[in-house]
């Protein structure tokens, strides 16, 4: 019995020793893992701070870019100094926008345009500033100033400068321009793609722009032409980019569509101009719901007085 007991005790001692070694090993491993996790956590905090500052610098830069872009784009307050009964509903997708509004006035004529440049965010914004600069150059240096002639001149400038060093440049813009002769009360419209909606006494007429993409000769099969629009007092004119109509939302998560926009404009046209802006904003947000915004939004309305 003594030999058996001794053997059993030795086995227990060996098992206890192994157990102690395992505990010591696991304790050491736990300590190493804890140190590693602590170091990883510290590294993550440093990375988080670096990302925070990098993101802040980026957002600050984009906000400053917006400040510069806003100096080029006509704002609602500025537009009302030229066209008192007007509004602009604009909502960039990413701080800065590829959509823009432009206005110019001389002694007898008022020009107003909206543009929708390729993309959104910073690339779209840079292109919009370029197109606005070219619009100003065209209106100030050319002799012919009908909407169609401005678009043709602008197209030549876009092709000249944007493809000067890059023959593969494919970015472009859609554009609609109005010219109102205040002396003769004559309205001309011309456009590359962007439509005009005219509402007179509850009757809606939509004028389509030519299938003509600025700066891109591969994507056009029509020429831009001037179209004279018969207008009367209290008529409403609307120009817009495709951001509103392409927004996904509603009960079935589908695009808003041009059909729904025309219905909305018809319901809104008789409201005071300030209320029309608010109505557009409310309906857009209601439709979008929890969805992400799809694209830049710009919709402008003008009442004839």
> Uncertain runs with pLDDT below 50, 5 residues or more?
none
Identify the overall geometry: elongated
Q: What would you call the quaternary organization? A: single chain
Strand order of the largest sheet: 1-12-9-6-7
Q: How far apart lie the N and C ends? A: 119 Å
Report the total helices. 6
- Structure classification: alpha+beta
Radius of gyration: 32 Å
Structure characteristics:
305 residues, alpha+beta, 5-stranded antiparallel sheet, 6 helices, elongated
Structure description:
32% of the residues are buried. The strands form three sheets. This protein has a five-stranded antiparallel sheet with strand order 1-12-9-6-7. A five-stranded antiparallel sheet has the order 2-3-4-5-8, with helices on one face. The protein has a two-stranded antiparallel ribbon with strand order 10-11. It has helices spanning 2-72, 76-82, 121-141, 147-162, 257-268, 273-288; strands spanning 86-91, 99-105, 109-117, 173-181, 186-192, 196-200, 203-207, 227-229, 236-240, 248-249, 254-255, 297-303. Helix 1 packs parallel to helix 3. It is α+β, with helices and mostly antiparallel strands. The N and C termini lie far apart (119 Å).
């Amino acid at each position: 019995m003594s030999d058996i007991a001794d053997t059993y005790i030795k086995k227990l001692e060996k098992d206890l020793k192994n157990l102690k070694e395992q505990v010591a090993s696991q304790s050491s491993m736990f300590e190493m893992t804890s140190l590693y996790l602590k170091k990883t956590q510290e590294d993550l905090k440093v990375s988080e701070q670096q990302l925070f500052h990098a993101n802040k610098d980026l957002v600050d830069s984009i906000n400053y870019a917006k400040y510069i872009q806003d100096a080029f784009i006509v704002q609602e307050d500025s537009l009302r100094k030229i066209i008192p009964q007007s509004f602009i509903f604009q909502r960039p997708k990413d701080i800065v926008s590829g959509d823009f509004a432009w206005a110019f006035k001389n002694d007898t004529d008022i020009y107003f345009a909206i543009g929708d440049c390729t993309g959104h965010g910073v690339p779209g914004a840079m292109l919009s500033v370029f197109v606005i600069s070219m619009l100003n150059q065209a209106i100030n240096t050319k002799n012919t100033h009908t909407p169609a002639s401005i678009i043709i001149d602008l197209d030549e400038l876009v092709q000249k400068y944007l493809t000067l060093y890059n023959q593969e440049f494919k970015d472009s813009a859609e554009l609609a321009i109005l010219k109102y002769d205040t002396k003769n009360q004559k309205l001309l419209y011309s456009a590359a793609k962007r439509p005009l909606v005219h509402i007179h006494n509850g009757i809606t007429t939509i004028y389509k722009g030519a299938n003509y993409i600025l700066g891109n000769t591969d994507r056009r099969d029509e020429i831009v032409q001037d179209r004279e629009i018969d207008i009367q007092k209290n008529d409403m004119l609307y120009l817009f980019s495709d951001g509103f109509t392409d927004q996904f939302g509603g009960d079935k998560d589908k695009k808003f569509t041009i059909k729904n926009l025309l219905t909305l404009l018809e319901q809104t046209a008789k409201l005071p101009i300030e209320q029309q802006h608010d109505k557009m904003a409310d309906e857009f947000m209601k439709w979008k719901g929890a969805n992400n915004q799809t694209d830049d939004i710009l919709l402008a309305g003008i009442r004839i007085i």
